[in-house]
Design goal:
The protein is an alpha/beta fold and 271 residues long. It has 10 helices and 8 strands. It is 51% helix and 10% strand. A hairpin with a 2-residue loop joins strand 4 and strand 5. Helix 2 packs across helix 4 and helix 4 crosses helix 5.
Amino acid sequence: MSFPPLLLLPVLIIAVLLYRRISSHQKRKRLLATPLTPQQREVVARLVPILRRLPQSLRPQLEGKINLFLHQVTFRGNNGLEITDAMRLSIAAQACLLVVNSPVWFTTLKNVLVYPSAFVTHRGTHDGFVIHDDNPAMLGESWARGPVVLSWDHALQGGLDHEDGHNVVIHEFAHQLDGLTGHTDGIPILRKGQRYDGWEKAMLDAYHDHVERVERGQGSLIDPYGATNHEEFFAEAIVAFFEKPQALQREEPALYAQLSQLLALDPAQWA
C-alpha cells in the first residue's frame, strides 16, 4: 500500500520535528549529567571562589548546568576583546549559581556580549517628550529573551570578590530570571507552594524600607541602586542574598526567606 506524496510530506515533517525534539532532550540530559574537567574546576574555583562554599550535594548539578549553559550560549567579544575559556567559565558559573537548585532555566538566552570594561550604549533615554543622548557608561545590561551584555573587568571582579555586595553577572541574570514571566517587574516565576501575597509583602516592605534609607543618606546592606525601581531592587537583593546572606537574613528575614524559597538555597548556612 502506498501513500500519495501530499500525505507523506506532513508525516515526514512531523517525524523530523519529533526526532529533533527527542535528540535535543537527550543532549540536554547528557550535558546536565556531565562533570567539568579537573582543569575547568580549577578555573572555576579560582575565578568564582564563592562556589567553594557551595554544599557538596549541589556541585554535580552546578557543573551540569554550566555545561548546558556553555553549549547553549554563544559568547561574543566587543571592542576587540578575545573571549577565552576562562571568561566563559567564570560568567557561566556565576550565572548558573542562581539556578543550581531550581527547575527554571534561561531558555531564551542565546548570546552573551562582553566588553573589555565599562561600555557606552549610544542610545537615547526618554524623559517625557524629550530624548537625551547622555551615553552613560554601563557595567551590564539584560534584554528580554537576551542578550546579556557585560563588562569583563567588572564580571571578573564580581566573581573574585564575593563579599563586597557587588556582582554584575548575578545582577543581570537575576533580571533574566525576572523576565521569564514575560515581564521584568520584580515578580519572577515563584516556586510551587510559594504564595504571591507572601512574596509581595516581603518584597514591598523591604523595598520601601530600602528607599527610605537611601533617601535619608543612610547606609544600606542592599546596593543603593536597588532603590531605582522594583526590578532593580529584586536584582540587587539577589546579589546581597549570595554575597551577604547572614546580614540579609538578620536585617530582612522575610525577604531572605522568600528568596531562599524561590531559589531553593540557603547560603546563610553554607560553611
